[in-house]
Amino acid sequence: GTKADSSTGNGDKSPALTTKTTFTLNCTAFDGTSASASTTVDVSVPPLSLSFTADSYNLSYGGGTTLRWTATNGNKCEKSGGGWGTSNANIGASGNYWTGGLTSSQRYYITCSGPGGTIEKSVYISVAPPTYPSLETLTPIVYGNGNVYFRSYIYPRGYPTRAWYQWGISPSLTGCQLTTSAFSEPGVNYWIGDTRFGSWWGNGTPVNYYNCDSWVYYYRVCAYNTSNYATVCGNTVRFGLLAPYVSTGGSTHDTPPGVSNSSGWELYGSIDPNGNNIDSCWFQWDNDSDLNNGERNTSCSYLPGSGTSYVGVTTHIDLDWYYRGEEDNRYFYYRLCAYTSVGLGTRCGSVRYFHTR
Questions:
Q1: What is the distance between the alpha carbons of residues 109 and 104, in angstroms, rounded to a whole number?
Q2: Could you give the CA distance from residue 146 to residue 345 in angstroms, rounded to a whole number?
């Protein structure tokens, strides 16, 4: 008999097989009879596997990592949304990808295919919140001529940190608001690269030189973390550059019971320390209105402290002690003065007067 071709059409040699295949052989005898036989070849398909990893799965704010993938027995991989930002883009059966700086956690997906089918995997990259420097604004050191040393504690937490001071005439730091970085002085703008708490001092700056005259100022330290783009400011501190508010009050003739006339007088006034400690206060007084020449000074009965609101003060004077009975029917002039070692030193209130009998 004769032999016909197999169903493969390639004679006795089959092509490279990738799937299960059945071969059939048909034969015809010389007498016209025919017969056929079949056989099935079971092809073993190599399994598809995918390795998808990241060099680091936990990042600090602004950090990046490299993603790596390999599809064994695969012929195509696609990124499918998530952190990639672009879906269904062919990225090859193997490769790597730098994520760039991340500011939020991301999940990355890959889908790979091949003779063995399709497989999908993902990796999750966790990104920590921004790491802020720790800041504390300290009470400044203020001295004569309106100069001030700004002070603070700055804890950079291991990152390079640039620091500066904001200050102005209101607690919100609006209005006449300035920053020390604008002064171009070498000691007010810091790059800090260690992790220690430290006291960082600004240069003495005559504040009123910058057309920001006020009785009261507010300031705070701010810092920028150059590794994770985080900016934070510390607490706001109130301070006064000028001398306290001083207001001269009234007077009272001190007449003891049973005495028709007395040379004793009580003088009154009030002081707002303006946040600065009052080192001394006194009443200037004399029998003429020129209290800058030859006046007498009598200390306040007590000091008002270092608060930020008015505190009443008094003193007692005995005219007879100085004038020996010649104080009757005369005008006397007085004013309240206060001194602080910070700011501009001494400030006095307005001049007032009283008349004896």
A1: 16
A2: 10
